[in-house]
Specification:
The protein has a five-stranded antiparallel sheet with strand order 1-6-7-8-5, with helices on one face. A four-stranded antiparallel sheet has the order 2-3-4-9, with no helix packed on it. The chain is built from two helices and nine strands; from the N terminus they run E-E-E-E-E-H-E-H-E-E-E. With 130 residues, it is mainly beta.
């Protein structure tokens, strides 16, 4: 059963953010969230998987409706959530051929004004507010 947990509560100010995603071998995954007042940089390092979709097409099919309804009234004010038992994590586990089970994997979802970004990684992100 899919469960969402608010993490890093109160660190990222609530707001409508534009999103910049950079991913590669050199620095790994870097996600910047920018609005008129705040510039946030999330450093994930090397990740196992990422999925980025337009928020308008995904919330009713890819995530637990009961979990979405917990956070939707507050406009996903926490921005980043830890997901357990999620559909994306299960997909990655199925294709990893046993490799997944030996890792301490975490599934995060970042909800912004225009995107839902799922991240599968072994690490917690470093969060910098500029």
């Amino acid at each position: 059963m899919e469960k969402w947990e608010e993490i890093f509560t109160g660190i990222i100010p609530q707001g409508n953010y534009q999103t910049q995603v950079i991913n590669g071998e050199d620095k790994g995954l870097v996600i910047e969230l920018i609005n008129n007042n705040t510039h946030i940089v999330l450093y994930f390092g090397v990740i196992l998987a990422i999925r980025m979709l337009d928020e308008g097409i995904v919330q009713t099919e890819l995530y637990s409706d009961s979990e979405i309804q917990k956070f939707k009234p507050d406009a996903f004010k926490n921005v980043i959530y830890k997901v357990t038992g999620g559909e994306f994590e299960k997909q990655i586990q199925n294709i990893a051929d046993g490799y997944y089970e030996v890792l301490n994997v975490k599934h995060y979802v970042i909800i912004t004004q225009n995107y839902n970004i799922d991240i599968i990684t072994e690490w917690e992100p470093e969060i910098n507010i500029l």
